[in-house]
Write a structure and sequence with these properties.
Elements (H helix, E strand, L loop, with lengths): L2 H7 L20 H5 L7 E7 L9 E6 L2 H12 L3 E6 L16 E12 L5 E18 L5 E7 L9 H20 L5 H8 L4 H9 L6 H8 L4 H53 L3 H17 L3 H15 L6 H15 L12 H11 L4 H16 L7 E5 L6 H12 L3 E5 L7 H4 L12 H9 L5 E5 L12 H8 L8 E2 L6 E2 L5 E6 L7 H5 L2 E4 L5 H19 L7 E3 L1 H11 L6 H19 L6 E3 L1 H8 L17 E8 L2 E13 L4 E4 L4 H16 L1 H4 L5 H4 E6 L13 H13 L7 E3 L2 E2 L5 E2 L4 H10 L4 E5 L11 H4 L3 E5 L6 H4 L5
Parallel strand pairs: 1-3, 7-12, 7-13, 8-9, 9-12, 14-15, 16-20, 18-19, 20-23, 23-24
Antiparallel strand pairs: 1-6, 2-5, 3-4, 4-5, 5-6, 10-11, 16-17, 17-19, 21-22
Length: 809
């Protein structure tokens, strides 16, 4: 055997890589075995991994470990015999006696080649099975005393043994044919062997068995049993090989079908190309598929989209159904399923942006900064559902834009005022002509991200009729526990709305359904004081109106006093819309002067203000200096802010009849009845005739008769007006009051305290009476506002009358 053949047959058996068994090369003749040197009792040990060496087996080994190299050299120095033992665990690099099997094969080193780096290439031949009697040393290499195990003599073959030999050869041939191995040479070697044990070893050496299975064959000393075990392993290998062939055949059939479909599609394209209808449709389908890949919707959405895409491919492109499906797929591919804007989580910078855009509104700003802080600590939190409640013109909508800018998100606003169709929220079914998704999905497509700030304006003005109830449809949208799988009727697949920050606005909560209100966090935005309006006008309104009307801000000279005069005499509102209109009117007058060639700067004085805006709409000197008996001033809350309420009571001769006018609601009528009953029960305290109801009729009227009025907060004012009328005692003209009454004379709490105090100050009141339990609401009233009026909390009605009546001389 040449060195070239040795190099070609060498396999790695002693390195980190697993070894593979060698092929059958040649068998030693009987004469060679007869002349082989006698095997000594003590032999050097060569540990191998991932391989078991059998008798008559010739295989190359790559020896690299230091102890193994020493063992080979020791064997070469003696009679070339070496004990080859397999390792129990191939990962052990320096095996001890416990890591080796105790039954192995004595091999003879036939040829050795030494490498420059000290490693060896050796060719060994299995000579005899051997059992380790004792390991006698482990340095510089392992040594062991052995007991040779000879095969039993089986010269006489029984029919059973003959059948097993033939079965083993047939199964070996079948296995090689399944694996596609040329079996002519190998079967020639196998057919020349008729000894059961030798045949079993020869087959086992070429089966590439696991070490455990090969070792079990090596440890089976009876040739018949060994051959039976080989037949069992051959049957298992044939079954595995058959399954591999079947799998490969199925894969090939799948590839053949794919190629067939490809050719058919190409032929179909050619046919359609001849008909002039192919290219455009195929290009369109490819574009839709590419858009869907880019949008990357969730698996269930993509499954539905692929289903509709297959339907579209089978339709004529000009059919109406194809148009519907095409539009549907366009919507699916253009929605921001996975596209989100990155939140600006710099809390200080966000606070700076909020302060730049809006004056005051500390509660709202604090809530937004809290949300940002939590978002920074917990990025997976769900978006809040906020509801800003306040009079018109206080900046609810613009505050939403400011929040979006502070968060670094896109902003989308939809107006719910007058919306009556539920399909505006949930969309239309695709079966309808002209069907479209709802406003929520449309807005998401427009902004292009799945986490915008979504403002739903005027939620208190939603309607309901035969087309459905939009407020009920909003229950799912505005619920963080449900909106992560919002289903639009048009899409009919879930969309996650939980990342959206929803902000609703309302002027009043009375018309908002309770279940919808329960899902929102309410933040009240009251009206502004005169001081706040002047600051806002100076910081925001003047620059904006000057720019809109072509005037430079430095060309205008308008003092805070003039702005305050505009607030007092030309606007009386909770918000700022009318004030901005008046400032815009001033800027337009100046713009005309500039266009006519008048050079600035333009100074606006009180006289110029009256010339620009005309006579004052409101004057404090128009207030009544004195009130006649039977008239008292109350405070009312409206969606547009607080108002002064005049209540007039006139006594007349009669029989105790009570007349109520002024378009009063049921609650206010009941307050008038309660006021009259309380006055009767306390007649002796107030100096009234106990029998006045038998000869006096009372007419209660609230001016502005065309305006509906309701609510319990005018109770104390009604009692005061009734007592004033019956005692013919006037009430102070600069005192007003609010509070609900009970028949026991208690003053019960009411709402809208800040707005009512704002109205009282705006109308020049000196003192206001509020319920004792509303004293906690004074925290929301600015200090500069409280300095302009005396706020007196009361618990009983009896406390009010002595302080409000004008003492007679």
């Amino acid at each position: 055997m040449t060195d070239e053949l040795l190099d070609s047959l060498l396999v790695i058996a002693d390195s980190d890589d697993p070894a593979s068994a060698g092929t059958i090369t040649e068998l030693p003749s009987d004469d060679e075995q007869a002349t082989a040197p006698e095997i000594p009792e003590e032999l050097p040990v060569l540990p191998v991994r991932d391989i078991v060496v059998f008798n008559y087996m010739i295989l190359p080994l790559f020896v690299g470990r230091e102890k193994s190299v020493a063992a080979v050299e020791a064997a070469l120095a003696d009679k070339r015999h070496i004990l080859i033992l397999s390792q129990r665990d191939e990962k052990v690099d320096d095996p001890s006696a416990e890591d080796l099997y105790t039954i192995g094969t004595v091999g003879m080193i036939m040829r050795m080649l030494k490498m420059p780096d000290g490693r060896l290439k050796v060719l060994v031949q299995g000579v005899s099975r051997a059992r380790v009697k004792d390991f006698t040393g482990d340095s510089p290499y392992h040594t062991a005393t052995v007991e040779l195990i000879k095969d039993e003599d089986t010269t006489e073959l029984t029919p059973t043994t003959e059948a097993m030999i033939r079965a083993a050869k047939d199964q070996s041939e079948k296995l090689m044919s399944l694996k596609g191995i040329s079996s002519q040479d190998i079967m020639g070697v196998l057919n020349s062997v008729d000894e059961p044990g030798r045949l079993a070893d020869l087959i086992a050496s070429n089966l590439r068995l696991r070490v455990e299975d090969a070792q079990s064959i090596l440890e089976t000393f009876d040739p018949i049993e060994r051959l039976e075990l080989i037949n069992t392993l051959l049957a298992r290998e044939i079954e595995v090989a058959s399954m591999q062939v079947k799998i490969q055949s199925m894969a090939k059939e799948g590839m053949d079908k794919a190629q067939r479909d490809f050719f058919l599609r190409e032929q179909l394209k050619a046919i359609r190309r001849e008909l002039g209808e192919a290219d455009e449709q195929n290009e369109e389908l490819e574009e839709i598929a590419t858009a869907l890949d880019k949008a990357n919707p969730p698996k269930d959405v993509r499954k539905e989209a692929d289903k509709q895409l297959k339907r579209l491919a089978s339709m004529h492109p000009d059919s109406s159904e194809a148009t519907v499906i095409r539009t549907y797929l366009d919507w699916i591919s253009e929605l921001p399923w996975n596209k989100a804007s990155r939140d600006r989580l710099d809390i200080r910078k966000a606070q700076k942006i909020l302060n730049e855009d809006h004056y005051n509104l500390e509660k709202v700003k604090e809530r937004i900064l809290e949300y940002l802080s939590v978002r920074k600590l917990n990025p997976k939190m769900k978006g809040p559902i906020l509801c800003f409640v306040g009079p018109p013109g206080v900046g609810k909508t613009s505050l939403g834009r400011s929040i979006a800018r502070a968060l670094g998100r896109k902003f989308m606003r939809i107006s719910l005022g007058g919306m009556r169709d539920e399909a505006e929220i949930r969309g239309h079914r695709r079966t309808y002509i002209g069907a479209m998704p709802g406003r929520i999905i449309q807005g998401l497509k427009q902004v292009g991200t799945n986490n915008p700030v979504f403002m739903m304006d005027e939620i208190d003005k939603l309607g309901a009729d035969f087309r459905g109830d939009p407020s009920s449809a909003l229950l799912e949208v505005l619920d963080p526990e449900q909106n992560n799988s919002f289903s639009d009727h048009y899409l009919n697949v879930p969309f996650d709305l939980s990342k959206i920050m929803f902000i609703c606005t309302a002027n009043t909560l009375d018309t908002v359904p309770a279940p919808l209100l329960d899902r929102m966090e309410t933040i009240r935005i009251p009206g502004y004081t005169e001081h706040e309006k002047v600051k806002i006008a100076r910081r925001y309104l003047l620059p904006r109106q000057a720019e809109d009307n072509g005037i430079k801000l430095k060309e205008m000279q308008i003092s805070d006093a003039v702005i305050g005069q505009t607030v007092r005499e030309y606007t009386r509102e909770a918000g700022l819309r009318n004030l901005e209109r008046q400032i815009g009117s001033i800027c337009r007058k100046l713009a005309r002067r500039k266009a006519e060639g008048d050079k600035g700067p333009y100074r606006v004085t009180p006289k110029v203000l009256e010339k620009f805006l005309g006579p004052a709409y409101y004057r404090d000197d128009e207030m009544e200096k004195t009130l006649p008996p039977g008239v008292a001033l109350g405070l009312a809350w409206t969606p547009f802010g607080g108002e002064i309420l005049h209540i007039e009571v006139t006594p007349m001769k009669g029989k105790g009849k009570l007349t109520l006018t002024g378009k009063l609601g049921d609650v206010m009528k009941e307050s008038a009845q309660a006021a009259l009953s309380y006055a009767r029960s306390r007649a002796d305290v107030f100096g009234l005739d106990p029998e006045f109801t038998e000869n006096v009729d009372l007419h209660v009227h609230v001016p502005a008769g065309a305006t509906p009025k309701d609510g319990p907060s005018a109770g104390v004012t009604l009692v005061t007006a009734v007592i004033s009328a019956l005692t013919d005692t006037p009430v102070c003209a600069d005192v007003c009051m609010t509070g609900e009454i009970s028949l026991r004379g208690r003053v019960l709490p009411v709402g809208g305290i800040k707005e009512k105090i704002l109205a009282a100050v705006a109308n020049g009141m000196r003192q206001v009476f509020i319920p004792k339990q509303n004293e906690r609401d004074l925290v929301d009233v600015p200090a500069e506002l409280r300095r302009k009026i005396t706020v007196t909390p009361v618990e009983l009605i009896d406390e009010i009358w002595p302080q409000v009546c004008v003492k007679k001389d």
